[in-house]
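Ops channel
N.P.: pipeline sanity check, posting one input/output pair.
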């Protein structure tokens, strides 16, 4: 079994410096999604809080808001634009 080539080809993503911390945190959370019968529902915020503590973030409120923007954008893409 193989993945289609489009899924195996790495994509280049440009991240503005002011978004880098949130982007890294989002990547750390890639396996921490809550699921239901219809698939992914959203990030597990208990794990988000734990990672904030682990990585000693100095701006948790702003970082959470950034993560929520990425979370909703991802879910919108996943569900065909219907987040």
């Amino acid at each position: 079994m193989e993945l289609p080539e489009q899924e195996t080809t790495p994509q280049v993503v440009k991240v503005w410096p002011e978004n880098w911390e949130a982007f890294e945190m989002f990547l750390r959370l890639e396996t921490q999604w809550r699921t239901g019968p219809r698939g992914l529902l959203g990030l597990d915020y208990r794990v988000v809080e734990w990672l904030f503590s682990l990585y000693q973030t100095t701006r948790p409120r702003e970082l959470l808001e950034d993560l929520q923007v990425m979370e909703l954008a991802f879910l919108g893409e996943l569900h065909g634009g219907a987040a």
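N.P.: looks fine end to end. The longest helix spans residues 60-78.
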